[in-house]
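cache lookup: miss for this entity combination. No prior model stored, computing from scratch. Input as submitted by user K.M.:
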Amino acid sequence: MVLVGEIRKGAYFDSVTLMTVGKEVSATEGVVDAAVVMGTRENKAILDASGLLTPEFAEARDTDLLIGIKADNDAAAQTALAGVEELLKNARNKGDSDEAFKPKSLEGALEILPEANMAMISVAGRYAGNEAMKALEKGLHVMLFSDNVSVETEVELKKFARDKGLLVMGPDCGTAIINGIPLAFANVVNRGDIGCVAAAGTGLQEVTTLISNAGGGISQAIGTGGRDVKKDVGGIMLIEGIKALAEDDDTKVILLVSKPPHADVLAKVNKLVEGIGKPVVSILLGAEPTSPNMAATLEEAALKAVALSKGESLESVTAQLDAREADLEKQAEDLSAKRKNGQKFVRALFSGGTFCSEAQLLFRGHLSPVYSNAPAGDAQPLADSLKSQAHTVVDLGEDEFTVGRPHPMIDFSLRNKRIEQEANDPETAVILLDVVLGYGSNLDPAGELRDVVKDATGKVSVVCSITGTDRDPQNRSAVEAVLKEAGAIVMPSNAAASKLAAYIAERL
Amino acid sequence: MFLLSAGDLVEEGTYEVHSRFNRVVNFSCKDRLATLVEESIGPGPVHLVMRGANLKKVHTLAVSATTVRLDGISFHRKEVRTYDSRILLPAAEAVVFRRNLRIMEHELHTQAPPKSLAYLLDEQRLAAFRSGFERAVAHHIAGGVQLLLNGEVKSGIGRLSGCGFGLTPSGDDFIAGVLIGLHARRQLHGEPTESLVSVIYHAAGKEGFLSRAFLRLARLGRVGEGMKRLLLALGAGDETETRDATARLLEVGATSGADLGTGLYMSLKAGWSCGVVDYPNPKMRDLRSVPYTSEPLLQNAKEEYGWS
């Protein structure tokens, strides 16, 4: 056993730095124990008791920094000592950097930014409610990215917020665009006069980007969290969001995006909408449209909102989409002719949960049976999420795929493996994909998909939609070009891609 | 740059840089301390709160009766707000104080940095101390606190002084917290804690310029704005005020705020448990009433290191 020590006269560091350096050095191979402390009397006593007091340390003063290392051999000790030097230098450089102070509490943050009026919270669910309430008590709106927040806490937060005239977006709210700023998973879109309230994150991304790409613009895009429209929560924030947009001078058209809300919530929303005085378009995924302002797909909803914003008729949208049906059918005819005998199924692999639902709803009346790990419409539960069965629609954002790993919008590795697996299945005819761009998403989707898509298109039809704009970090047009070159069929929306996939398989 | 406030205990002198951190520069003039701080730190007894100063590049400080001169730029003290660092607390209502002390304890349990002395309140936090030396330090401090609780003030404080990591060792921050707590108890509950303050202060070691300075201020019952806000909240504030003020304290330094907070909490809790007591004897009988969770720690220390 070897003991080495060094005294640094006049050197000083904060406690966490010293403990971190000591811990890292202790973990070095061959090191038995290490200490980096000021040379006070008591610290020297502990060094002595720990067998780390060298003879030189006895004369050290309280202003001296002592480095003591006990190791298996001299080489290990010297390596560790050199390591300490490096770590302390890095710590000093970090301290010298121009990095701004990062507060560790809401209070500290507000001291630096007293004019803030919103807090975005992304901590473990069991703490999130408390932090959200703190922010509301200080008069801040809240975007609650965290999930695993109880419904009781959600209701408490939303009622409190409502009484104070504040918004709570969430829990599990991953998308919002406030005053033109994309928050969390969101896209760079045009500013304009269409305000959105959504209980569906990817749904909100789809409609906002389609609106922007169609020449419209977004005033505000408010997320409510998926559970808001259920009976327990009663649509509190959906209603507050609608009211806020109704009062907003910059909003001329309101667009609602949700799965079908509970009947009580729907009744409240309908009553509210009657008295607003602004046109309201709604897409309630899975519900049959019962008026011209309702849409059957996210795409239709977005285009209707743009039409109203431009003063055009809703019928023009219907005509446009009807005309496209013929094109889709023709395209499906051509693509199905390329498939071999035995190829008959659609294998849809989604990173966005809303797209997964929308695809299943559009498959109704065209494909059967359909299985999914997140069934919607007529689909049945998939027995094994890792193994497709007949027509299969997989939401790769579900828990079984995301525990301990990044979301599939960020990390493509799992989906790429699945694409390969499905392409090698002789029964697969079509692979259907969503590619979601924007902040928070994978920064090189084209690069990561190109090779696996190219391999797959030699065997199956790969149909995809790209949710995004050219102003997103990934640039929608650039991604489209790469995927087309790889042989993918790129459609303008999830609805169009899902329909095409269904029409191809129908003909096999 | 602007000098926003000067602490009421900033003394005259020509100072030199003692130590420099991201948001703080400590200056020394013999035994006198003056500290240049960013706004986010806030006022304190020896703080000079600056706006727009590059603290990485400040080198000289001279203080006279009328001016503060920083690197050749003069500020007139009359034009600068003076921060009153005295602890001035109204008597506390027992129910409110107890509730708020529980809130402070909860915040220490859940929000204190992993390697702070909050393990004295929650043994599970000991897991953060991994290396042999770190565990030895943790046990040593626990042993010192146990001696304190047993009424052996000099031995306990002697063991805590200068013990721990950082430029101001954790043990010194803990003692400062205890002293501030004793001052607060006198004002909140009317307890005659002056002699105890004196005993503790004199038992504390005199190592480390910063530690000496902070302990001197704590002995005098002089505190920064953040601590003052916490003490006011504990005595008469609501739950939110108490939580907020504790959270701000925990942001001080790397672990200093939490170590200070732990000492403060243990000192206040002792006073709460006992009510008003007469102290003919400076032994700390009152702290013995604190249910102390670290008995195993002391036993461990005895076995591992042969301490008596």
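stored under new cache key. Chain B touches chain A through 50 residues (CB under 8 Å).
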